[in-house]
């Protein structure tokens, strides 16, 4: 993500990032920024972000950035840099990305994967008053120190003519990312953990693309909009009961078409996505102080035991430990 290129040299200290900071970073990284609510010289010192942004280059040749920020002023970015492989993982919040005339909504637990070039600029929109946690990484042309495994991946990526796509990140990978960011982990240990996680993400992303090649067609613009309407319903009201037939009727397609096209578009089944939305909602309830039983019931689970099993499988910890770790 474009705001992820901001460098915070004091990795554990939150700070404010102003318009002036953004302009310096833009010159350094080839990014144009637009602040629709700020104008004039007075706006140069206005804070846009508050939080922590860390950047590192891994031994594999991957440039990685982790951002944990709160957006104070809305802003838009347009990136002009090239990358044969770029990935953004949203850990909390939502990012709206536009590329080649298509718009992508990347929600918590999802990854955006693309090939970037100067001929196809990527833009992103960030709304105010939201918390945003992201992990972004890419391989850049001027970085020649790459491991052979990464070179093999790039060759396969090019062979598949990999398009831009959004997919669901497995829960155990998200848990690993969360663990790598816990306080008390040394710099070398963190780097080793992230190196392994990057390869896991790349492996899952490659597998998702390879599965897509077996499908004859990708969803059309109209189908994509109808699929997105189903996904939004699941995300906004995960506590409700759904049937495949009801959701298929909303998408104006058969149940079998919804089943296959949803997996094709988002990298998971309809009900796997619903489960992840329920668990994420329950996690927010737990952080707010609700009991495990309350969080389970308010998120659509009738039995706390089933909820606890699913929660542990996705996040790697029992739900009762959320407030201690969060």
Can you describe this structure?
The structure is a single chain. The protein has 11 helices and 12 strands. With 326 residues, it is α+β, with helices and mostly antiparallel strands. The chain folds into 2 domains: 2-212, Jelly Rolls (Sandwich), CATH 2.60.120.10; 221-325, Arc Repressor Mutant, subunit A, CATH 1.10.10.60. The chain has a 7-stranded antiparallel β-sheet. β3 and β4 (63-71) form a beta hairpin. α5 packs parallel to α8 and α6 (244-250) packs across α7. The radius of gyration is 20 Å and the shape is globular. The model is unreliable at 1-12 (pLDDT under 50).
Provide keyphrases for this structure.
disordered N terminus; Jelly Rolls; 25% strand; globular; 12 strands; alpha+beta; five-stranded antiparallel β-sheet; 2 domains; seven-stranded antiparallel β-sheet; Arc Repressor Mutant, subunit A; 326 residues
In the residues, how many domains can be counted?
2
Number of DSSP helical runs:
11
Helical/strand content category? alpha+beta
Q: How much helical structure, as a percent, in the residues?
A: 40-55%
Low-confidence runs of at least 5 consecutive residues: 1-12
What is the overall pLDDT average?
81
What's the count of strands? 12
Q: How big is the Rg?
A: 20 Å
**Order of helices and strands, N to C?**
EHEEEEEEEEEEHEHHHHHHHHH
At CATH's second level, what is the architecture of the largest domain? Answer: Sandwich
Rough outline: globular
How would you characterize the largest beta sheet? 7 strands, antiparallel
Widest β-sheet, arrangement of strands: 1-3-4-11-6-9-12
CATH topology of the largest domain: Jelly Rolls
Give the percentage of residues in beta strands: 15-25%
Q: What is the CATH class name of the largest domain?
A: Mainly Beta
The CATH superfamily of the largest domain is: Jelly Rolls
Terminal CA distance reads 24 Å
């Amino acid at each position: 993500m474009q705001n992820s290129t901001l460098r915070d040299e004091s990795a554990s200290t939150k700070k404010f990032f102003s318009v002036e900071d953004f302009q310096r970073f833009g010159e350094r990284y080839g990014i144009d920024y637009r602040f629709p609510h700020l104008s004039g010289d007075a706006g140069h010192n206005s804070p846009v972000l508050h939080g922590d942004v860390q950047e590192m280059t891994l031994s594999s040749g991957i440039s990685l950035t982790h951002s944990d920020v709160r957006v104070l002023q809305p802003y838009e970015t347009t990136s002009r840099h090239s990358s044969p492989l770029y990935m953004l993982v949203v850990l909390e919040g939502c990012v709206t990305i536009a590329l080649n005339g298509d718009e992508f909504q990347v929600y918590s637990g999802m990854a955006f994967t693309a090939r970037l070039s100067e001929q196809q600029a990527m833009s992103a929109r960030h709304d105010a008053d939201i918390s945003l946690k992201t992990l972004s990484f890419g391989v850049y042309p001027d970085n020649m120190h790459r491991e052979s495994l990464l070179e093999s991946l790039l060759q396969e990526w090019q062979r598949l003519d990999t398009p831009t796509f959004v997919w669901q990140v497995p829960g155990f990978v998200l848990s690993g990312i969360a663990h790598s960011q816990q306080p008390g982990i040394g710099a070398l240990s963190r780097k080793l953990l992230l190196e392994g996680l990057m390869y896991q993400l790349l492996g899952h992303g490659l597998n998702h693309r390879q599965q897509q090649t077996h499908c004859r067609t990708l969803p059309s613009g109209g189908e994509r909009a109808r699929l997105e309407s189903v996904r939004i319903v699941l995300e906004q009201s995960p506590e409700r009961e759904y049937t495949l037939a009801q959701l298929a009727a909303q998408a104006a397609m058969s149940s079998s078409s919804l089943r296959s096209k949803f997996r094709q578009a988002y990298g998971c089944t309809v009900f796997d996505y619903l489960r992840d939305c329920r668990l994420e909602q329950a996690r927010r309830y737990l952080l707010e102080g609700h009991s495990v039983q309350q969080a389970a019931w308010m998120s659509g689970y009738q039995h706390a035991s089933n909820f606890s099993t699913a929660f542990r499988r996705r996040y790697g910890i029992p739900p009762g430990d959320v407030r201690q770790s969060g």
